[in-house]
Amino acid sequence: MAYKISNKDGVLTFTIDREEKRNAVNDEVMEGLKEVITYIKEHENVRFLVVTGAGEKAFCSGGDLSEFHSLHTEEQAFGMLSKMGNILYDLATLRVPTIALINGAAVGGGCEIATACDFRLVASHAKCGFIQGTLAITSGWGGGTYLFERGLRHDRALKMLVDAKVYDAQLLHEIGWAMRVFEGSKEQALEEFIANMRKIHPSVHQAYKEIELRKWKERNIYDRVMEEIRLCAKLWESDAHNEAVQAFLNKSNSK
Ligand SMILES: CC[C@@H](C(=O)O)C(=O)SCCNC(=O)CCNC(=O)[C@H](O)C(C)(C)COP(=O)(O)OP(=O)(O)OC[C@H]1O[C@@H](n2cnc3c(N)ncnc32)[C@H](O)[C@@H]1OP(=O)(O)O
Fold first, then answer.
1. Where would one find the signal peptide in this protein (predicted)?
2. Separation of 55 CA from ligand 1 center, angstroms?
3. What pLDDT, in 10s, does the model give residues 222-242?
4. Predicted ipTM?
5. Are the CB atoms for 104 and 57 separated by under 8 Å?
6. What CATH class does 3-185 carry?
7. Which of 7, 23, 158, 168 could potentially form a cystine with 53 if both were Cys, beta carbons 3.0 to 4.6 Å apart?
8. What is the pLDDT confidence band of residue 191, given thresholds at 50, 70 and 90?
9. Residue 90 and residue 234: Cα distance in Å, rounded?
10. Partners of 4 in beta bridges
């Protein structure tokens, strides 16, 4: 199984469980995330959604390049990107608080998943970045749109995207992407983070999220996400992207 789901005391945790691939997202992970989101929509007893990765090396390394490199055309790429884009939109618009518990590197689509969550708690050793530019593509799951909505200063958000490099946890905190940087156990960091929120009735959380989502609707977030995905799909079929992915995969094969 490419993921694990646990549901304890109102905290539903989705763990990507592909350590050997640094928790890269494949079709199975997408289906798992979709299942969890549907479950939350249908069950009132879930208070928080936590997304994390197995092990300590990676939260998520983005799309699985060894699986997705078989997608060549713009339309093929759009199919995969929009599937995950819709899942992330559903995650971003859930009525319960969502927390990215970042246990290790979050790069590419991994950084997009984290940005789609309401809160980012980052392990002190973790490095995160929208490194898609190094693959000659943009963010393709809507993460760029969410980043511009997260209240970071505009120049800092844009720099993160155009730098296309990883930032360390301290810098992520300074620019306002990470809400907390933690040392030691991720479970403890999570418990401390939600301790106060647990004391508040869930209907209050839902009301605040409703207020935020109303603003998002006015700003046409869904349309902007789809436009972002369309731009990425165009770049996906370029030679520059194919060569960059081949170089990444050849590195693995030559080990
Ligand atoms: C498709 C959507 C698009 C988007 O919309 O954003 C994307 O997500 S594009 C994908 C962006 N991701 C990448 O470019 C992957 C970058 N990966 C890394 O930078 C590093 O792997 C890491 C995450 C920083 C971890 O580094 P390290 O701990 O040193 O591990 P290795 O690099 O040695 O990797 C171990 C193992 O895992 C394989 N791997 C890693 N990431 C992916 C991936 N995204 N897809 C497929 N496989 C991946 C890597 O090839 C190694 O495999 P083996 O050599 O077979 O052990």
1. none
2. 15
3. 999 999 999 999 999 999 999
4. 0.98
5. yes
6. alpha beta
7. 23
8. very high
9. 24
10. 15
Q: Please state, as a whole number, how many other Cβ atoms lie within 10 Å of the Cβ of residue 68.
A: 21
CA atoms within 13 A on the CB side of 110: 32
Q: Which residues line ligand 1 (CB under 6 A)?
A: 21-22, 24, 57-58, 61-66, 68, 105, 107-109, 112, 131-132, 135, 139-141, 248, 252, 255
DSSP symbol at 179 = S
3-state secondary structure 123-157: ECCCEEECHHHHHCCCCCCCHHHHHHHCCCCHHHH
Asked whether 88 and 112 are in contact (CB, 8 A), the reply is: yes
Q: Is the pTM of this model over 0.90?
A: yes
Considering only CA atoms, which residue is closest to atom 43 of ligand 1? 64
Instruction: Report helix, strand or coil for 181.
Output: strand
Cα 105 from Cα 88, distance rounded (Å): 19
Nearest to 107 by CA among 44, 7, 21, 6: 21
What is the number of the ligand 1 atom nearest to the C-alpha of 112? 6
CA distance 60 to 41: 24
The Cβ-side half-sphere exposure at 252, using a 13 Å CA radius, reads 9
Q: Which two tokens stand for residue 108?
A: 């590419």
